[in-house]
Amino acid sequence: MMVCKEMACKEFIERYTEYVDGALAPDERRRFDAHLEGCKSCRRYQRVLTRGLAAWRALPRVSTSPDFLPRLQHRLYHVDESSKRSWRGHLGRAAAIAVASAGLFTLGVSNGSQPLLVEVQLPPVMADVPTETVAESRGSRFADDPSVPDWFLVPFAPALDDGGGLFGSTYAVPIATSDSIPLPVERRSGQLDESR
Amino acid sequence: MDTKPNLEVTSRYATPGEMEPLGRGELKRLEDAELVTQYLGGQRFAFNEIAERYQDRLLNFIYRTIGDRDRAEDLVQETFVRVYRHLHRFDPARKFSTWIYTIASNLAKNELRNRARNPLVLFHSLRKSWEADHRPLEFEDTAYRPDDLFRKRRVREQVEAAVAELPEHHRVVFVLRELEGKSYEEISEITGVTLGTVKSRLNRARNRFACIIAPMLD
Which chain B residues contact residue A71 at CB under 8 A? Predict the structure, then answer.
């Protein structure tokens, strides 16, 4: 490695990037020029680098394949679609949350400081009862009790009655909410025995 | 007849009627930032122009960085998809090319890191790039003698191998400077490092490159 009185090769190599890219001050640049003129080793370094880079830059440039833009178009289409779906999902969730929040808020306001107890007013139970059935039923233990309403004396659940005896009498019927599903039956004590 | 595909996509930002539609010729004359403005204003063809303008530049940048042409093309696609998604966040005060190169550079660096973690992928990609079938077709100059042609090809291979040997963070800086001709400031912005680090990395990359190819060129 050459060490001239102005500059060592080490400095030249370390700052070669600034020198070759024109990032040095004029004074500095003159120092580098002077060193290069007198240093065979640094001239070789510069020559190798210049030729090597030239060879590298001369490598053929590649081009995108012919279907590059159509493929890109396809991908961008899906970006838009997923973006739309995402927005729809966000909006749906936001709407559901807003509705739920509004409902809870309304309940909270209507109840004031009371706990949120929901009072649901069920529709009255309507039953078409043949007159004779009610009349027959009046023969039971509760028949004469004016406080017992007619609906209480209506035979319940014909399917269960088919056995003909065991459930053949009158039962109290909890307020029914379904037409198809037989609900639990509350049995009044003594009724079964009377019927048998 | 113009057979170029049309990247007419349903723009999220398109507001028909806001801007006068521009022809392709007019779009070609616009600066990058103006194209972005046009696109955000509803000119859907403006993105087509951006893609056409940058596709080969980005491909060469990524290809020279990772050394795998097919994968490089995939990453260019990914670059455009990310640009498309985030175009509304582009700061017009910045240079568009710097922004798009930043995205491409990050993808290339991630690719190199993934390969470093998975040597099998690296082996396959290197082997593929060595196969003659994957090299671009070249029309050889018949004025050269066969030994000259051989030597020239050998030098090219060595030069490519020398660049491939550079550490990842040196290679990105090296490619941006030597192939893409970016300024130190742009490289600093693209890579997210200081100017001093850019100079240092570039100098080390050049030194390393010179050391590898010196025996071939002497």
Answer: 77
Cβ proximity of B77 and B168 under 8 Å: no
How large is the average pLDDT for residues B158-174?
91
Say if residue B157 is in the same domain as residue B97.
no
**pLDDT in the model for residue A130:** 57
ipTM surpasses 0.95: no
Same domain? For B114 and B78 the reply is yes
Would an 8 Å CB–CB cutoff place B184 in contact with chain A?
Answer: yes
* B163-188: average pLDDT: 93
The stretches in chain A having pLDDT less than 70 are 1-6, 83-92, 107-118, 127-196
Residue A196: its H or E element? none
Q: Which residues of B touch A52 (CB under 8 A)?
A: 159, 162, 209-210, 213, 217
Clarify whether residues B15 and B83 are in a common domain.
yes
B9–A52 C-beta distance less than 8 A: no
Considering only the beta carbons, identify the residue of A16, A52, A76 that sits closest to B217.
A52
Contacts of A69 in chain B (CB under 8 A): 4-5, 7, 48, 51-52, 55
Same domain, B8 and B113: yes
* Contact: A73, B7; criterion CB under 8 Å: yes
- Alpha carbon B14 to chain centroid, angstroms: 29
B105 and B180 assigned to the same domain: no
Alpha helix (H) residue ranges in chain A = 9-14, 16-20, 26-38, 40-57, 68-111, 131-137, 150-153, 158-161, 191-195
Same domain? For B110 and B156 the reply is: no
Whether the CB-CB separation of B19 and B43 falls below 8 Å is answered with: yes
What whole-number distance in Å separates Cα of residue B38 and Cα of residue B54? 17
Q: What is the pLDDT of residue A88?
A: 64
pLDDT score for A113 = 53
Look up the domain containing B195 and give its range.
138-218
